[in-house]
Design brief:
The complex is a heterodimer of chains A (475) and B (102). With 475 residues, chain A is mainly α. Chain A has helices at residues 4-17, 20-23, 25-43, 49-73, 91-112, 124-143, 147-166, 173-202, 211-214, 222-238, 247-253, 256-281, 285-310, 316-336, 340-367, 380-383, 385-399, 405-423, 427-457, 460-472, and strands at 80-82, 87-89. Chain A has a two-stranded antiparallel ribbon with strand order 1-2. The termini of chain A are far apart. Chain B is built from three helices and no strands. The longest helix of chain B has 31 residues, at 59-89. The chains are: A mainly alpha (475), B mainly alpha (102). The interface between A and B is large, with 38 and 46 residues.
């Protein structure tokens, strides 16, 4: 039944795959710990939640140690490919995986302090399994060099995210989850349809294959549209315009630590993948012009929509959702000009952004009452000085005001954009530059007027009127 | 009559459009899921039609297999969430599921 040639070729393929396992240590550890947790959940249902928590945290730390070891195994300057040409590892990929691991640890730490996690009937093993699968998917996504691995890891991230949204069994959690799922599945179907045409144009599904660059856009104008469709799945994960609609509902219904994770990790990793694709495509002048304009448009609309919709929100986490849509816009500005200087701006901004967001959500989780409206923060800053202080500080940093690292990050991004405008004076870049700065400036003005005066006058009521504005400006 | 690549592409485009129309106009969660399934199958059909011209072969076909598996997993998750939703809201109509405030 099996010919000797077939068996021989399978053996050769296996011997090609085995060296890749070293590079996948982090992922294998995550998968192992996740499955172990699921098993423990079935075998030891009576164990307290903290037991599962320690298993997950210990596993994540061990996986982190393996990841740190990978830094020594893979030479910094070279690009290594794993599993055929499915995945590739560079020094930058390892950095983003490290950032992902740190975000996951911070989320676990926040989970330990949340009330829903300690309820008696909470299925902690299954919950942590889903969380670790989400981290695993993001980690594979960061390494992807083939559309199949992009699609597959995106789906792993999405499906576990749908479940995590619904998993704390609030009556309304299912609503956010089903909307997330229907929208996410549609976005991935659109992405697949675009991918199938990219495959048809080039005959390959490898992302960084030179044949992608040989198909002239001027001869096939539909190719631009096809690329946009194919990138839709990543834009959806980043909650960028026009794939942002799910964010407010999901942020409102998911538990706060998970929201903190959603607002950081998928955005950072998807941005990294988009960066790789952008800097690859920009080798061709024609594609560069096309895509610069596309990213400028998406960034502009995300910033504008996020900022202005945020003004009308009264629910704390919906507000954070719109503010994170605007932040996505600022992150996407980096893609307009993929230069080496732009890359350091990207590294700096994503790192600072991750820390700021976790700080902010930690403050919210500490201070907000269960209904999580804006008004429920009133008076809490006096009682919880530390959480209030962190909240205010992180909000200032997210706005991008001078004493904080948030300011440096925005400065790097916009100075990069200005340089790009000088080499290629297209009006769209100028509009993006001015609009982005205006958005930052308008809200910084609101902040200084209301928040700081109120802060120093120390009147309880006024201070919290100020705080409301302060949170409004987390844009 | 020879069935050419174009026939497959047009059929796929029709399936995709029909699926998208279902997703956008229907309000029942199960019907929306059916629409998504049509869209995924349109992409699959494209992938398999193009795989005929792939010098390495099978890339598109292998991809289509993965898509089917993932779609099944996604549908299972969706139905699970729907069961929980029906317990809370007694309906599977998307317009009536709106406790989260706008």
């Amino acid at each position: 039944m099996f010919s000797p040639e077939l068996i021989e070729s399978l053996r050769q393929k296996l011997s090609l795959l085995s060296p890749s396992l070293v590079g996948l240590g982090f992922e294998l550890m995550l998968a192992g710990v996740g499955l172990f947790l699921l098993l423990l959940d079935v075998l030891l249902p009576k164990k307290p939640v903290t037991f599962f928590w320690w298993v997950a945290t210990g596993g994540l730390l061990a996986a982190g140690a393996v990841l740190a070891g990978a830094h020594f195994y893979f030479p910094v300057e070279e690009t290594s490919y794993l599993l055929g040409k499915m995945l590739r590892i560079t020094a930058e990929t390892l950095y983003f995986k490290g950032l992902l691991g740190i975000s996951a640890l911070l989320t676990l730490w926040m989970l330990r302090g949340s009330a829903f996690f300690h309820r008696l009937d909470f299925p902690a093993g299954a919950f942590l399994f889903l969380f670790l699968s989400n981290v695993l998917g993001l980690s594979v996504l960061a390494m992807s060099a083939h559309w199949l691995s992009v699609y597959f890891s995106l789906e792993l991230v999405s499906v576990s995210a749908y479940l995590l949204t619904a998993f704390h069994f609030e009556p309304r959690a299912g609503e956010g989850s089903i909307k997330y799922l229907l929208f996410g599945a549609t976005a991935s179907a659109v992405m697949l349809y675009g991918l199938s045409f990219l495959y048809g144009f080039t005959g390959t599904l490898e992302i960084f294959s030179p044949t992608f660059l040989q198909v002239p856009v001027s001869k096939h104008p539909v190719l631009g549209l096809v690329w946009v469709l194919a990138l839709g799945g990543l834009l959806f994960k980043m909650a960028a315009f026009p794939f942002h609609i799910w964010a407010p509902d999901v942020y409102q219904s998911a538990p706060t630590p998970i929201v903190a994770f959603f607002s950081v990790a998928p955005k950072v990793v998807a941005l990294w993948v988009l960066w790789q694709i952008a800097s690859f495509l920009y080798e061709i002048e024609e594609l560069r012009r096309l895509f610069s304009l596309f990213w400028a448009g998406v960034a502009l609309l995300s910033i504008g929509l996020g900022n202005f919709a945020a003004l009308w929100q009264t629910h704390l986490k919906r507000l954070m959702a719109y503010s994170s849509i605007a932040q996505t816009g600022f992150l996407l500005v980096v893609l307009v000009v993929p230069s080496p200087g732009g890359f350091s701006a990207l590294l700096f901004y994503t790192t600072v952004y991750a820390l700021m967001n976790f700080g902010l959500f930690w403050g919210i989780a500490k201070m907000a009452s269960p209904e999580e409206t804006l008004d429920c923060l009133a008076g809490k800053g006096r009682e919880q000085v530390l959480a209030g202080g962190v909240l205010v500080l992180m909000a200032i940093a997210l706005v991008g005001l001078p004493p904080t690292a948030g300011f440096t990050a925005k400065l790097l991004i916009f100075s990069g954009l200005w340089e790009a405008y000088q080499t290629w004076p297209h009006p769209a870049l100028l509009v993006l530059f001015i609009f982005g700065l205006l958005n930052a400036a308008v809200f910084a003005f609101l902040l200084s007027q209301n928040s700081f005066l109120a802060f120093f006058q120390r009147k309880k009521h006024q201070r919290f009127a100020g705080k409301k504005y302060l949170i409004l400006t987390c844009l | 009559m020879m069935i050419s690549l174009n026939h497959y592409l047009f059929l796929a485009a029709f399936l995709f459009a029909a699926g998208l129309a279902l997703v956008l106009t229907r309000r029942n969660v199960v019907v929306v899921l059916m629409g998504i399934e049509l869209m995924l199958n349109a992409a699959n059909l494209n992938l398999i039609a193009f795989a005929r011209y792939d010098p390495l072969h099978l890339q598109g076909q292998a991809f289509a297999l993965f898509v089917m598996v993932v779609a099944a997993a996604e549908a299972a998750v969706a139905l699970g969430i729907l069961v929980q939703l029906r317990r809370t809201y007694q309906t599977s109509n998307l317009d009536e599921i709106k406790a989260l405030h706008e």
